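Question:
Write out your own:
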Amino acid sequence: MHEYLIEMLTCPACHGALAWTITEHRGDRIETAEVHCTGCAAAYPVREGIGLFLTPDLPRNDLWEQVDSQLVQYLRAHPHIERQLMDVPLETLAPADQFFRALVLEERGDYAQARAAKELANIKIYTPEYRACCESQFDHVIERLSTSGGPIVDLASGQGYLVEELARRLDRPIIATDMSPRVLRRNRKWFEFFGLYDAISLLAFDARRTPFKDGAVETMTTFLGLLNIEEPGDLLRELRRVVAGTFLSIMHFFPEDDQANAAKIREVGLSALSFRASALECFAAAGWQTEVANACTGRACPTPTGVVLEGIGIDGLPVVDTMLEWSVLIARRRM
C-alpha cells in the first residue's frame, strides 16, 4: 500500500486515530507495518504490501476463499481428475472446465496461460449481449473518470476486472479492496505480472466497517460488488460516511416479472439490490441521490457446469434465461 493512504485511514472499529510503526518500505510503498488504534487498541498489520483492516467481530462469508481452497484440495486428492483438467488441449475442455483450469493456472503463477484460458471460457460462458453490456459499463465509468484526478477506491474488487481496466486506461492512483487477503495476494501477483501494480494499493476490509475517515474518499467504484449484499442498508450508510464525491456502481438488474430468477434471488436473501426499483429505494433510504446512466439490456443465460469437474457451476444466477438491465448507478451524498 502507498504511503498517501495513511492520511485517509482510521480505525474501522471505533474511528480512532492510528499509530503506525513501519518496518519495511519499497519506494513510496509500505510493505510491512504494525498499526494500532490509539482509541480502542485494535491492531491492523500490513503484510506483503496489503493493509489488513479487518475487524474481528463481523461474520464473513468469503466465497472466493472457499472456492479456491476447495478446488485445490479436491484436485490434490484426485490427481487423475487434475490430469484430465490440466494435461489436455485447452480447446477440448468444456467452458466451465476452461474457467477452472484458469484458476489452477493462477494458483501456479502461470498468469499468461490463465488469462488465455479465462478469455476462451468467457466467450461461451456468457452471451455476446452480456459481454457487450459489461464492456459498455467499463467504458462509461472510465470516460467519466478521465477528466478528474486523485485516488479511486474500488470496492469489493474481487479478481480485479474493473481495477485492471482503470489501471490500464487512467493515470490515477487506485485502491483495490476486498475482504479476502487471499484474493488480494493473488491480485498483487497478477498486477505485477502484467505491469500494472505501480499505481495500485491493496486494502483488506469489510465494507460494513471501512477504514476510511469521514469524507476521505472522493471517488469510489465497484463492479457488481453490491449484488451479494444481503442487508445493504448499513453498508450503504457506511459508504455515504466515507465518500465525499461520487460512487460509480456497475449494476445489473433482473426484470421484476422474472418469476423463476426472482424466487431464487429471494431464497438466498439478495432481492434488495437485484431489482432496479428496490435498489434505488435502498440508496435513497441511506441518504444517497442517484442517477441511472448508460442503461443497456442483454440476454443472460445460466452459466454451464463442468464436465471434468462434473456438475460444478460458476455463477448461481440466473437460473433461467433472462434479460438483464445493465447500468452505472451514479450516487452522491444527498445534502
Observations:
- Residues 63-124 form one domain.
- The longest helix spans residues 128-145.
